[in-house]
Amino acid sequence: MIDAAIKRDFAARARAGDTVFLPGCFDAMSAMLAEKSGAPAVMTSGFAVSATHLGFPDVELYTMTENLTVVRNVVNAVGIPVIADTDTGYGNAINVMRTVREFEQAGVSAMIFEDQLAPKRCPAAAKQVEILPAYEHAGKIRAAVQARRDPDTLIIARTDATSEDEAIARANLYVEAGADIIQPISRTFTDIDGLRRLRAAVGVPLSLQVLGWLEDLTPDQIREVAGIAVFPLVGLMTAARAMQQNYAKLMQDLSTKSLPNPVMGMPEFKEFIGFEEIEDQQAKYLVMDLKATGSLG
Predict the structure, then answer these.
(1) Are residues 57 and 121 in the same domain?
(2) Among 232, 255, 281, where does a domain finish?
(3) How many domains does the chain contain in total?
(4) CB count, 10 Å around CB of 176?
(5) Do 19 and 222 meet the contact criterion of CB atoms below 8 Å apart?
(6) Tell me, what's the pLDDT at 118?
(7) Would you state the pLDDT for residue 297?
(8) Same structural domain for residues 213 and 84?
(9) N-terminal to C-terminal alpha carbon distance within the chain
(10) Does 33 fall in a domain?
(11) Considering only CA atoms, which of 239, 190, 181 is closest in space to residue 212?
């Protein structure tokens, strides 16, 4: 669980446009691996959560509580800020208020709410998405801001409008409603100049999902416009490719001798996952061990 001072520093950096670069994750272990690599924060990607926990594409088939279970496990596994992809908020403005309270209680540092019509479809994969009237989503953002109990919990408003002018107009409404950060989708703006225009128009930093053409931007270009920059699918796609190749080779050879991708050894994995700490706790607290040492009558 994150320390309050770390959460406060993360919020201050993001709001000030001191870009926080971070990876996406999809479960507790992927978040732990990110933290061990030096990541200052992680984001639970809805795309990745849907794929790994349901085996389905990102079309909001999982429920709020299913997503919350994953997010809570991630928060409990790491000591860095966790940004939750909270999709459309799972309903109207009243549903959004409950979503904010549940995820904030779980310990997240930020939530992303998009202006798609529920159930949403991932714009990185879907050919077409439907979006809410702008004022309706502004009401949902206003409700999210009202519902949060900690002002250091960031509310990130995402617009899936594909017209640059409409995206800017919507983003301004969402900032007026209290959004701390604005997130565009990659297909709306086609170059850094478009993102600069958005950043200047809304007056708050952007949250960027570094996918597609945004992967060609330099870190310095991203720093110009973003308070948060997420590489959302590196973990998911790395794991998917490595397991696909190793499983195929395993079933072909019925042996682990020639796997194309190296695997972590058992001693290293046991250290990473915390076996020694658990064993120390067992020795200290289990009743049988206490009896054996004569500490109990």
Answers:
(1) yes
(2) 232
(3) 2
(4) 12
(5) yes
(6) 78
(7) 47
(8) yes
(9) 36
(10) yes
(11) 190
The residue from 210, 232, 254 where one domain ends is: 232
**Pair 29, 99 in one domain:** yes
Q: Residues near 4 by Cβ (< 8 Å), separated by ≥ 6? A: 152
Average pLDDT for consecutive 10-residue bins of the chain (297 residues)? 94 98 98 98 96 89 94 98 96 97 98 88 67 97 98 97 96 98 94 98 98 97 98 97 98 98 96 91 75 55
Task: Give the β-pairing of 42-44 and 82-85.
Answer: parallel
The structure tokens 């919350």 sit at: 68
Among residues 104, 123, 106, the alpha carbon closest in space to that of 115 is found at 123
Q: Which residue range forms the structural domain that includes residue 285?
A: 264-297
How many whole angstroms from its chain centre is CA 28? 12
Q: How far is CA 57 from CA 31, 50, 82, 167, 240, in A?
A: 21, 6, 22, 25, 14
| Torsion 221-58-24-137 (CA) sign | positive
Taking Cα atoms as reference points, which of 44, 137, 45, 151 lies closest to residue 93?
137
Is residue 185 one of the residues assigned to a domain?
Answer: yes
Q: Within this chain, do residues 156 and 281 fall inside the same structural domain, yes or no?
A: no
Q: Do 33 and 170 fall into the same domain? A: yes
In a domain, 138, yes or no: yes
- CATH classification of the domain holding 189: 3.20.20.60
Give the per-residue pLDDT at 292: 56
Q: How far apart are CA 100 and CA 10, in angstroms?
A: 18
Spatial distance between the Cα atoms of 151 and 211, rounded to a whole number of angstroms: 29
Are 283 and 188 in the same domain?
no
Strands 226-231 and 42-44: unpaired
The two three-digit tokens of residue 155, written as one number: 């509310």
Q: For residues 203 and 276, what is the distance between their CA atoms, to the nearest angstrom?
A: 49
Same domain, 151 and 275: no
Tokens 């990130």 belong to residue? 156
Bridge-based pairing of strands 20-25 and 226-231 is: parallel
User: Does residue 249 sit within a domain?
Assistant: no
CB 59 within 8 A of CB 116: no
Neighbours of 228 (CB within 10 A): 29
